[in-house]
Amino acid sequence: MSSVPNVVLNNGVQIPQLGFGVFQVDDEQTTGAVLTALEAGYRSIDTAAVYGNEAGVGRALAASGVPRHELFITTKLWNADQGYDATLTAFDTSLAKLGLDQVDLYLIHWPAPARDLYAETWRALEKLLADGRTRTIGVSNFQPAHLQRLLDEGGTVPAVNQIELHPGLQQAELRDFHARNSVVTEAWSPLAHGQLLQEDTIAAIARRHGKSPAQVVLRWHLQFGNVVIPKSVTPERIRENIDVFGFELTAGDMEALAALDRGLRTGPDPDTLN
User: Fold this and answer.
1) Distance CA 239, CA 84 (A)
2) Where are the alpha helices (DSSP H) in 99-171?
3) Are residues 77 and 90 in contact, defined by beta-carbon separation less than 8 angstroms?
4) pLDDT digits 0-9 by tens, 61-105
5) What is the pTM of this model?
6) pLDDT band, very low/low/confident/very high, at 3 (cuts 50, 70, 90)
7) Active site residue: 42, 51, 106, 118, which one?
8) How far is the C-alpha of 268 from the C-alpha of 12, rounded, in Å?
9) Annotated catalytic, 51?
10) Residue 249: what are its φ and ψ, rounded to 5°?
11) CA spacing 20 to 30 A to 154: which of 27, 46, 63, 147?
12) pLDDT band at 1 (very low <50, low <70, confident <90, very high)
């Protein structure tokens, strides 16, 4: 069993605080990477329809021998499939590729605001939740205005908002909105695609703790209370990324990392991607 602590979502479901992401991993390579992650102790796996590797995740889950109740599987609805009926159809496709009869978390991948379908799409996710086909529902890359619309229209409060988040893009306003509305913050690109790992500040903290720069950044996320999903296909790094529970950053370390915030976005702007 994994030693990763759980975070309790707003409907009582628990999600491991550290999981494994498979963004930009091809389908064949995904199977081996996920098997390595499961062997290393990860129990949360995060994929998406648009990644094209849900089937690879499914093969790994089937081959791993890990009991289903120990796993937390997330996938996401792509923008082109938004809309009530289209969402239900897309979910069926994702479930079939994963080889599962239920996922643990289903997310709207982007708000795609110009399409103006995310509120209708959310109602489809609520149906999937009510029907027991997903244990919880959430969103990804939603800004405060998008979240506020869902809250204003009533119904289910998203359990999670998965956003780009790392020391170079700390998203304080959005994290504060989450905290006030019982939405868990989940970080994608937690290492800024490696762009921050050569920072002198991070390197110095890593040396003091005898850890790698990546381990320092992942520990920063955990101490913030974020759920975090690092990605790697290198077995050594997969194992290293989960070995972050035996040390703690000091208040001074956290202050030094806070000073790295500079609006460094490595992915698309959620207000303009449609």
Assistant:
1) 40
2) 118-130, 144-152
3) yes
4) 999 999 999 999 999 999 999 999 999 999 999 999 999 999 999
5) 0.96
6) confident
7) 51
8) 32
9) yes
10) -75, 145
11) 46
12) very low
